[in-house]
Amino acid sequence: MEREYEFFVTTDKPYNPAGAERCMIRRLVMRNHFDMKMAGPQINPSQHSSISTAMAKKKLKNRFRISEPRIKKKKFKNREKEDARRAREQGAARPKDLRDRSGPITSSKAGEDGKDKRNNMDETLEARPVLNCGLVDDRIDPFKASLIPGTPELGALFQLYKSTPKNNAVAIDAHHTWKSLILNDAGLLHATLASWALYGMLANEPADLRVCNLKHKNEAIKAVNCKLATSGGYISDEVVGTVLTLANLENLLGDYEAAQLHVTALKRMVKARGGLFAFGHNDGLLRGIIWMDFHTAAVFRAHPSFPHISLDPDTPPLPDELIEEAAQTSPTSLLHLSCGAVDCFKIFYQLHRLALAVSSHWVGRVERLTLSNLLYETQFMILSVPDHSHNFLHFDQSIHDKQSDCYDHLKAKADAASVVEALLAAALIFVYAVLRALPLNTKIFTILLSRLRAALDRPNASVLDTWEREKNLNTLLWVLVVARCVATGEERMWWIAQLSELCGKRQIRSRQHLEHEMRHVAWTDTFFGDWMDATWAEVMRLRGLALCRGPLAGFHATTVEHSLFDG
Predict the structure, then answer these.
(1) For 102, phi and psi rounded to 5 degrees?
(2) What's the pTM value of the predicted model, to 2 decimals?
(3) Judgement on whether residues 50 and 98 belong to the same structural domain of the protein
(4) CA 125, 129, 133, 136 torsion: positive or negative?
(5) 200, 441 in Cβ contact below 8 A?
(6) For 454-470, how does the pLDDT look when each residue is reduced to its tens digit (9 = 90+)?
(7) What pLDDT, in 10s, does the model give residues 177-224?
(8) Alpha-carbon dihedral of residues 524, 487, 165, 325, nearest 10 degrees?
(9) Are 550 and 452 in a shared domain?
């Protein structure tokens, strides 16, 4: 089927296309080349092997290439002037616009000032050192078809993304629809690159990544504004995905005021499109909207903005063997709670199985889509539990007559509410640290730890006595270990002190004993395995200091672990 093309010719001066126009011309030239080869006589397939292509590198040089925008290197300056002079003398015609009439016509203003931006970028890269990514641009984008021109900084972001451990085995793009979406839209690609830079900042904090983050975020915002101004009211998947990524970016950064601007816009866009079901064709985009909404709800202790939906009902369930193994260690003590017992039991029933499914002896044996759907159900349940914090906050801030008839009732209600709120905060910490694998210095952990401590560290209330009356000291043990794993600095010692006191009361005599208790709530060795030795060592050190000040100060250090919890 023949393609029709339209040529715009100029002979006034050399023309160097840039931006989207440049990429479009290159793709069409390559497509025509291969169509012509397929229409002609077939040759030996071995001639197209990667080995022969590599050997013929010199022959392929400059093939399907449009001349680069002005290069500032001195050794090419004279050659460019000579080529331009010859072109003017010979009246050589250069293509100015080339469009494929057989498919949809794409227009973009992204390349209008691409030459100036590229020159400014080159000057910036020459003025300061960039990240050493170990990749050259041609290996990242060998055919120069990317919507964003390749630079060493772009190579560094790709290298960072490829080298980062993919610990998040749960909240995934199950149908792999997100990658194809970002590769075909410059704004969404800029937003995604900004998020990669942010993850690098949270993990390593190199200064160059801060520059990358700001640059790509600004380009993404400009792309969204341009599309909304020229779309005629239509909101595309790409625009929704870009706004979603920007909202998630600000959430992770902890700038929740800026994030709310994007979140509000995103909600309006989803509503204008007809709700979540309008994105059923793009699973990655749909789940991205959900995870972003969950993050916002978790920060503000709010109900999810979007209604509950059924994600892939045909997904296979958890294996029977895993369910049988989980049944032996399920946290049934939560049924004894005097407030929110059923809700908490259902939540930890799910968390218990999720944690087991991502443990080393089950990982890879459970469908990732099954885990993603199960996490969606679990987190929706956590965020849907009514807020009980006002019960204990109001009680703790008020002055009560302990001799009054209603004092005991109000105190019991406040204590029960504090236990429920602590369990929900710890469950969210577990979701984001263990199952979602967010960097532990993400702002959401600071918020959840503060909420958890407010529910535990109450005036005129003993943590151990409160949880003992609720018959859930074993669950409190799990809460304290989870908090200790994400706490930093001096605050971590408060959690260690509480854990040490509880280990004494529960007569936890070894690290293995502590791990055994953790397995009865929600445990995965892929996360806690790296923390348990340090946690137990801190508990022992704190208990050892306490013993040195007490009647056992004369005991030898080697006898401490076996005797300190004997009462």
Answers:
(1) -80, -15
(2) 0.70
(3) yes
(4) positive
(5) no
(6) 999 999 899 999 999 99
(7) 777 787 788 888 888 888 878 877 777 656 567 777 788 888 888 989
(8) 10
(9) yes
How many helices (H) and strands (E) are present in the chain, helices listed first? 26, 2
Say which residue the tokens 């915002």 belong to. Answer: 221
Write the pLDDT tens digit of every residue in 251-260: 988 899 999 9
Which one-letter amino acid corresponds to residue 425? A
Neighbours of 246 (CB within 10 A): 28
Residues 280, 199 within the same domain: yes
250, 386: one domain:
no
Mapping DSSP to helix (H, G, I), strand (E, B) and coil, where does residue 494 land? Answer: helix
Q: Which amino acid is at 483?
A: A
Q: Mind giving me the DSSP string for 252-298?
A: HHT-HHHHHHHHHHHHHHHHHHTSGGGGTT-HHHHHHHHHHHHHHHH
Side-chain-facing half-sphere of 473: CA atoms under 13 Å: 16
* Enclosing H/E stretch for 95: strand 94-95
Give Cα 306 distance to the centre of its chain.
20
| Domain range for 177 | 126-306
Q: Is 19 left (phi over 0), alpha (psi -120 to 50) or beta?
A: left
